[in-house]
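Final report, results section. Input specification for complex C-07:
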Amino acid sequence: MSLFAGKVAIVGVAESDQIGKVPDKPAIMLHAEAAKNALDEAGLTHDDVDALFTAGPLPLELGEYLGINPKYADGSNVGGSSFVIHLHHAALALASGRCEVALITHGESGRSRVGMFWPDTFPDSVLGQFEAPYGLMDPVGSYAMAAARHMYQYGTTKEQLAEIAVATRKWAALNPKAYMKDPITIDDVLNSRMISWPFNLLDCCLVTDAGGAVVMTTAERARDCKTTPVTILGIGEAYSHALISQMADLTTFVARDSGKRAFEMAGVSHDEIDLAMIYDSFTYTVLVSLEDLGFCAKGEGGAFVSGQRTAPGGDFPMNTNGGGLSYNHPGMYGMFAILEGVRQLRGDYADQGIRQVPNCDIALVHGTGWNLSSAGTAILARM
Amino acid sequence: MSDYPRPLPVPDPTTLPYWESVKAHAMRIQRCNDTGKFFFYPRGVSPFTLSKNISWEPVSGSGTLYTYTIVHRHYHPGFASEIPYVVALVELDEGVRIMADLVDVEPDPQKIKIGSRVEVVYDDVTEEVTLPRFRLAGS
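Structure output:
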């Protein structure tokens, strides 16, 4: 029995006015622009918002900048999955009557570094004492070590990882907002500059400037909104470690738990998922997520993505916005996976040919955060 | 102040015995006396029980290479001259995992096999600080 199906609705989704290179705007303004755009799409206003959810700034800083004094707030920051997890927290607040219009925002000046929120690593922190002295490039080095272990244990190949980058770029070519649109081949991935073995440059996400926002409300209020409402059939979250050295088994992560919780709440099977939006900080992140979410068995992710199966025209539409690998990734990406899942369900691309996933009735949106540390999985459908 | 160009750890009161042990070239790590299990990094409480019933135990510093990456791009200028270098997760024989660099090795994935035996090397990087690093056993 779903807690949320038919009771809470996503009624607005938007990016900031520009994404990609935005050197003239601080990160907090990217939150503000996306908030305004998402509220406008929904037909709601600044004065309707009574709950704020964000990761990056404190909810206090966000509320102050936006001039909103919420009666419910959540600043949980668990990495790039945070915004999928905020969907869960906002749905709970809405379903229990704690608020009526929840605004979830994100914004980072990841490329231009204007007004960012992240502190330096202190040398007496756990990270400062036990990892920083060794020069691991964060977070790419952590994911690279996980990929290396998966390759050792299951025979996963760099060519299989490259399949993901190539298929994702094909989707990006269809998205005018995508940062990188030129076609690439598997050889291009393998021959791109080495970053942190086994990852080449094209195994790694972009670093951009962007904001995003989601507006959620109750079923009653959704009737007056301008958009086709999208509801949450099932959702789950899960956490394990923070440092990669503390991860029990580097070949599997807590997506297995968040996914199980989401599927159980939704009461749907994997075969019923029409679109998978899978956080792609690195090619490997996608491969291990597909396994842990149960789309294939452990160790079979490489075979699953082979033959351009996730590309336009393939039988497993995935990351149809071009993903963090080719569309946009300002540091945390989960927000943008939600935007695309909602747009595909609403049929926003119906006049754009192959870009619209046909008969897209159920979408899975999965966020992974920190060093394979946190997971949020949402299964969405039109209300 | 030293002119060592890379980040140095600053111990806190709960981790100081570890840093003192590596400075003495005789690594000690913590064991939870309630469960008998070792853990790392050092903590003020056992992550198995939250108890403070913890002891410091000497270890040989021998273990197995669990995984690694070869870093070709640095995030801190102090590492620029080291590129490419190998950062590893080592599973000590006591069952805990520790991050450190793998030294005295060619940074070539064909030559570094996961599962290889490794041993600790103590590097006195400043007068105050010793960093444990690892090398392939017998190298």
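Chain B touches chain A at residues 6-12, 15, 19, 41, 66-76, 78-79, 82, 84-85, 87-89, 97-101, 109, 114-115, 131 (CB under 8 Å). The radius of gyration of chain B is 16 Å. This concludes the modelling results for the funded period.
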